């Protein structure tokens, strides 16, 4: 069971990243609102969506897990910062769901990166 936990975490994070793409790529009004509020509409919405798609795919490929986790930490870290500085915890009466999801995704990605740290080529092996 222990060897399956990292795989389960990878699938969860990839699913979260990929599931949210339909909102970004279909120009859902909530997505447009968020990116307008932070001054990144439309190019930031599409660009971040592409980065999240790439990160989600990389998380599912064993040799690139660490890259996917690092990308996820970067993009979701940015989302968390936007919530804390410009958007607020609650966006459009979502009761903090987006912020909570981003925080969970960030934590799980950090765990994934820690578990796969041995795969990072420029980190010294102890």
UniProtKB/TrEMBL annotation:
Tree of life domain: Bacteria
Subcellular location: Membrane
Membrane-topology descriptor: Multi-pass membrane protein
GO cellular component: membrane
Transferase as UniProt keyword: no
A matching Pfam family: DoxX
Transmembrane spans: 7-23, 43-61, 66-84, 96-116
Matches recorded under InterPro entries: DoxX (IPR032808)
UniProt KW Magnesium keyword: no
Record's protein name: DoxX family protein
Annotated organism of origin: Flavivirga aquatica
